[in-house]
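Structure request: Beta-microseminoprotein, Pteropus vampyrus.
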Amino acid sequence: MQKALLCRLMVWSTFVTLCNAQCYFMPNMYTPGDLSNECKDLDGVTHPLSSKWKTENCEECSCGQDGISCCNIAAIPMNYDTIKCQKIFNKETCSYTVVEQKDPGKTCFVSGWAI
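Returned structure:
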């Protein structure tokens, strides 16, 4: 039983390390007696309880009873030749490409990505 628990803990900790998600939480600001079924984001836009949306900053957010949770959805290139290559972010597709600095038409090999 302990071996199985230890094994699960090791797998979980490895998964958490690899994911490295960039998330944050904004608690709802309630006044006493307020039973609101919505969340208000930083831009002042209200969202229904249990709804999900994507922001223009490539974050996926959700409205819960306690507030808004948001996480980055763009995978960031981590292991590539930073001297020879550069990363370019496409905000419309929420994705990066890694290309040669001297010849942007050529892509570079990336061995690791983080979210």
